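Structure, all four chains, one model.
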Amino acid sequence: MTTVGFIGLGAMGAPMAWNLDDAGFDLVVYNRTTDREQPFAEAGVSVADSPKHLTKRADVVCCIVSDGDAVAELLERDLGVLEGVDQDTTVVQMSTIGYAETMAAADLVTEAGGRFVDAPVSGTVGPAEDGTLVGLAGGETEVVEDVRPILDAMCEPVVHCGEVGQGTNMKLFVNLLLGDAMAAFAEALVFGRASGLDVETMRTVVSNGALDCPLFDSKGGTIADGDFAPRFPVDYQFKDLSLALDRAGEVGAPLSQTAAARESFSAARARGHGGEDMAAVIQPMEETAGVEAREE
Amino acid sequence: MTTVGFIGLGAMGAPMAWNLDDAGFDLVVYNRTTDREQPFAEAGVSVADSPKHLTKRADVVCCIVSDGDAVAELLERDLGVLEGVDQDTTVVQMSTIGYAETMAAADLVTEAGGRFVDAPVSGTVGPAEDGTLVGLAGGETEVVEDVRPILDAMCEPVVHCGEVGQGTNMKLFVNLLLGDAMAAFAEALVFGRASGLDVETMRTVVSNGALDCPLFDSKGGTIADGDFAPRFPVDYQFKDLSLALDRAGEVGAPLSQTAAARESFSAARARGHGGEDMAAVIQPMEETAGVEAREE
Amino acid sequence: MTTVGFIGLGAMGAPMAWNLDDAGFDLVVYNRTTDREQPFAEAGVSVADSPKHLTKRADVVCCIVSDGDAVAELLERDLGVLEGVDQDTTVVQMSTIGYAETMAAADLVTEAGGRFVDAPVSGTVGPAEDGTLVGLAGGETEVVEDVRPILDAMCEPVVHCGEVGQGTNMKLFVNLLLGDAMAAFAEALVFGRASGLDVETMRTVVSNGALDCPLFDSKGGTIADGDFAPRFPVDYQFKDLSLALDRAGEVGAPLSQTAAARESFSAARARGHGGEDMAAVIQPMEETAGVEAREE
Amino acid sequence: MTTVGFIGLGAMGAPMAWNLDDAGFDLVVYNRTTDREQPFAEAGVSVADSPKHLTKRADVVCCIVSDGDAVAELLERDLGVLEGVDQDTTVVQMSTIGYAETMAAADLVTEAGGRFVDAPVSGTVGPAEDGTLVGLAGGETEVVEDVRPILDAMCEPVVHCGEVGQGTNMKLFVNLLLGDAMAAFAEALVFGRASGLDVETMRTVVSNGALDCPLFDSKGGTIADGDFAPRFPVDYQFKDLSLALDRAGEVGAPLSQTAAARESFSAARARGHGGEDMAAVIQPMEETAGVEAREE
């Protein structure tokens, strides 16, 4: 049976790991802070002392951590995933990081003799729990097929996006579109409110048109409720738009609207909403326009 | 029985007028050029010599023409709708025009003794034919209720957005969001293509995510096919974003992302794509980035 | 001797008219409100009852009023400049208005038998008093040369920019650049302050570099002093950027950065700074970033 | 006598090093490729085998290289500046790199026992030859004063901008403003050309107004001549705007206009103008608008 190592038991990682456990994989987990490992230990899941030990034991090592620095640290320095890698190891990098960071990680793993797939996921905590994240896999077809049963335990669908790095590019594509759409929706709502329209009526109209989609439905609702509890926080959306713009600069795709969206999220961070849900991008816009989209 | 006058038998207006005819209203039509009136005459529908005569005959006068100047011309000058207005006339202005233009038209009609509803519609030719346009009505509740059976013949749903002018504001809200979303989708696709992603795979991912919506589904398809036959042309989207930004300036809602989107549509016009579908906003972006989203 | 009519005795117009008087022209003035005419009457300058009477008396009619609507009202309706125009009249339109508005005014004057020059001026109250405004003249060479002595009394230099309309386009060009530069300077200062730099040191560096110019020198000083008394108010700069973007849309010049600048001025208006100096564009940026560029 | 080490003999570095030599300092130089060292060797200047050896010999080590990676490589890895650093060494980092990169370099030097000043310079090759670069120094007052004679040999003025890192922030401030102003000037010229104005006339008007400055004077001239030989290339300006936006994101200063400017430079890169002068930012704008600012 395949032994799967899972590093990073955060809000996303924990339910993903549970899904691997439920699917019957021989699971070994690791988290930087031990409190997040506790429930797994209590349920009889193996807990590794270090990423290096985890890697030595596992056939496939999945990791989902906060950013590119955290991935680099996992692989190199004290954390030593690389020291544990051998020719039977496949590393599945699931964090949302930059393209250059992905390729650097892939090179390190490959040089250490292992195989590499980048497979960031699209979706929030709900889909993570339900196993319905969209898995965005980049890697050689054979390698992606080998790890597909593992990805299938966490994701539905799993989309093979191309060679190594293309999973990451697809994730940047998705979150670029998500960020642009969220900030555009916020601008539209503020325009409407400043013009005297009612949020509920605007929502009705959107839901009857060509832009009827889960994002506008859910964010319209939480904005109307004044509920900015984080599903996907402003800080993360800002990070992802920054990564996408970095990459766009490298590949020669000027993105003026995306650049404007990034600055809108930057404003939300500057006004103290970085930890709130991405829908909080509307808040500085409301302040400036002197309106509120919150329902009475 | 209510006599309905209908002015403007263009791509949208003609099917809307047919729906009024099908619904059994006593219909009288007018178009600036007679060729568009011909099929109605042949089907036994009354054709008026002038907007003034049409207005004299009708209880309710609907008009859907190209822009605010055309509406002003209809009401004043030679075309003389106003001369035909009396206390039993209700004018239903369905063209997409600016807020100030709407209010000016409303004032003229009201001063002439008539009643006024602004009821622009959201949707393209297909929904116009099917009677499933989204009707966005602004006016006093009593007046909107009086004309609702007429709107119902052309629209489903009919949304009462508020007092006079709010139908127009809602239309600007909808098309602002539409334009922003279209241009953002174009940026995302160009980013993806420049990064090595395949359009079909990007479409699959979008259709599995929080932005799954008719717009991205249909425009993704036509872009992949290189089909820019106009459903809603770049020129109209540019006009509507310009109107929205004018209005936003008046009500104090700064819209940096919408402003960027307008310039993207301006680029498409400058490159000769003004008469093509709004999805052609992608074409100058592709030229600059040196990529194509068209499927092989 | 040439009789010069001057309409519009505002902050700019009054000193311009005094300069005409000082230059020895036979002057007749008009202002919508009589209080602004009083000092001229007291100094023995003729005051006309109406624009129509002024035009009948004058060989050359200069006007500088608030916007395109005010110009249209002067020419048509009750104010009747056009009724006073004959084949010996030259109208010199000096207000900053849109290109389409300029051409419409030119057409009206020409149809009434008169000659037309558009000659908006660049500069603020100081240069208006000193007669050192930059005069931006559009019209046939012969006509511009005929009125040049009059312009020379108010301006130095007078630049002939091309045929009718090009004075207006040049004014839009100048104020587009001015607005963009002002908002960019504000962004740079806020960036610097947020990064821990001192305004006075930033000013020293700018004054030693390739961007050493009167605008940054003076606005840097007033910003450091927290002095936002209007030389050229935010509202006017916003209007001029809006006119430039309208015109840019017509001629097919997409201007993404100018579009962003317009929204920055829109934010300043929305936050109540519309009547303050254009440098107040920095204030919403400071609020968002939580910094102040004001010196202690 | 102070021994000065100078690393990086590129287009900027070489004349700066000659100025140190002319000022009578005991100079030792190093360049990654030996051809750039040759003229110095021929003139009797010491040439070091490696950055490490240079650092061992020198009291003050100046470096000006291409980017943050090059600086990191100089300090660490094979190049070994750090190995040569002792308590008598002061490193003066003059390259334009990011704030985080500067602070990382400062930490490394300080940990190795040395002292650190960041002193990027503003100006192009001409001022580098004339010794009139604007030196932007960040560091403790005592350390900056100690190296001021060295900076004075290359710069006039030398501006002490604050503690370590503030020289870098000031450089980002300057180049942010420069990039914004350049792209805004390009937009204005394209607007004017598309509106029928003549470049030479626009230049005359700018030179008579509040934005009369060396940048617009020189770039207006080279654009009119179609001369895009690089003084400061598009690629560098793009890099510096990217660094400034990164930093702005960290300190919470949303910069929508600067973000738009970055995308304009990105477009110039995408169209193959990355190695040309920053004024080439106008070229994709001209292509889109279908105009040319080049004089006949």
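The longest strand of chain A covers residues 155-162.
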